[in-house]
Design goal:
Blueprint lengths: L1 H9 L9 H4 L8 H6 L11 E9 L5 E7 L4 E6 L5 H12 L6 E3 L15 H5 L8
Length: 133
């Protein structure tokens, strides 16, 4: 499955050579197409590592995310409450600027795989959002 994912990331037409069950991979609704489009790195690949140290629910219901690089730099971004792990990885890959994929570690929650890309930040971290007015 990982080989098919990497091939699809390089050239989507490579998927036609994959076994049928891999083409229709829908593990928990998180299929190969979404995983290939995400910026989440595969275990064992070479990619920069970021740590999401803080996720804070703001009064507006948005999420303030603070990430740190291994070099010690930090950056803050605000996401909508329904933002996904793919959204976070995309932001971090853009910040890094030299890698298409990144590892994102959420201390206490682990590092998501590409197959987790459609999970929300809230789902992954177990945050509780305030009830609306």
């Amino acid at each position: 499955r990982e080989v098919v994912l990497e091939a699809a990331r390089q050239d989507w037409s490579a998927i036609r050579y994959a076994a049928h069950e891999l083409k229709d991979d829908t593990e928990g609704g998180r299929g190969i197409r979404e995983a290939a489009a995400s910026h989440l790195a595969l275990a064992g690949s070479s990619a920069p590592v970021f740590t999401v140290q803080d996720v804070v629910v703001q009064e507006s219901g948005t999420l303030q995310v603070v990430a740190h690089s291994l070099a010690g730099d930090s950056k803050t971004e605000v996401f909508l409450a329904h933002a996904t792990l793919a959204d976070v990885a995309g932001w971090l890959a853009e910040w890094h600027g030299r890698s298409r994929t990144v590892f994102v570690d959420f201390p206490g929650h682990g590092a998501p795989a590409p197959w987790d890309c459609t999970k929300t930040i809230v789902e992954w971290t177990g945050l509780v959002l305030p009830l609306g007015p």
